[in-house]
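Incident log, entry 3
Record: DUF2200 domain-containing protein (120 residues)
Problem: checksum mismatch between cached and fresh output.
Input:
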Amino acid sequence: MQTTPEHDERMAKMTFASVYPHYVSKVERKGRTKEELHAVIFWLTGFDDQALQRLIDEKATFQDFFDQSNLNANAHLITGVICGYRIEEISNPLTQKVRYLDKLVDELAKGRKMEKILRA
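Fresh output:
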């Protein structure tokens, strides 16, 4: 299943700050912590707490968010289906990165061990 150009554009323009509270509530509802969420985000992007907060405050789009990131070399190991899309088959690089993050948050919320989530 491939994404449409409209879908890819919508993903690029969406702000990280608008989605972040949903990530936090999703993982906390399932008994995980904001710190664990940050560990997952930091692993994928290379951001620290300050950089993450700056991007939230700036209301950075996902395009800006991932342009400023240093994607983990093992990100390609994130596979599977999220939101109806097989991650490894997504052709748009930005949309694929957003879905990487969604998949990691989903795995965290489902109680997967951190070593597995971080592809250690």
